[in-house]
Amino acid sequence: MKEITVTSQFSVYDSILELPNEIQNLMEQAILTRKNAYAPYSKFRVGTAILLDNGKIVLGSNQENAAYPSGLCAERVAIFQAGAIYPQAKILKMAITAASDSNKTTEPIPPCGACRQSIAEYEIRQDSFIEIYFMGETGQVYKSESLKNLLPLLFNKNVL
Questions:
Q1: CB contact set of 144 (below 8 Å; sequence gap of 6+)
Q2: What is the distance between the terminal CA atoms of the chain, rounded to a whole angstrom?
Q3: Which residues make Cβ contacts (< 8 Å) with residue 47, sequence separation at least 6?
Q4: What's the mean pLDDT in 37-66?
Q5: How far is Cα 124 from Cα 154, in angstroms, rounded to an integer?
Q6: Are 110 and 134 in contact (CB under 8 A)?
């Protein structure tokens, strides 16, 4: 038997105010979009803003459904919309913010597993990394240089 070690590394900003201006703007758009989330069941609102290589910004918020599997997370709403509207564009950066109607969310909230797999598909397809910034309602912002950092043993088309 052999063991392997998998590590992840993140840059940590103390607040949105420490972010570079371009990313601060992206995160502010994600925050505004988060307020449009349709989350009557979980009361957990997520907003995402994606910067494309053509300069366009695509937004998404979570959209719930009484039949839970039918809803979509903000990250997938945004990434699928980007793929539909700008199929040739590369995704450069993604900003994600989450907040609960029930309590203050101060820890950075990363994408869920399904969203990680969806983001991985685009990162592999475009053959370039996607910078991912994520935060709660307030507080620290984490930066991952690539989705691979969040999902190091990812499933991809090469195994099919």
A1: 8, 10, 110, 131, 132, 133, 134, 150
A2: 26
A3: 29, 30, 31, 32, 33, 34, 35, 36, 37, 59, 60, 61, 74, 96, 97, 98
A4: 97
A5: 10
A6: yes
What integer is the mean pLDDT of 85-104? 97
Residue 95 to residue 113: CA distance in whole angstroms? 17
Length of the chain: 160
Percentage of the chain modeled with pLDDT above 90:
93
Beta-carbon neighbour count of residue 84 at 10 Å?
9
d(CA 148, CA 21): 25
Active site residues: 75
pLDDT band at 155 (very low <50, low <70, confident <90, very high): confident
User: What is residue 76's predicted lDDT score, i.e. its pLDDT?
Assistant: 97
So what's the pLDDT on residue 69?
85
Residue 143: phi and psi, rounded to 5, are -120, 130
pLDDT at 160: 85
Name every residue whose Cβ is closer than 8 Å to that of residue 95 and which is 6 or more positions away in sequence: 23, 26, 27, 29, 30, 48, 49, 50, 133, 134
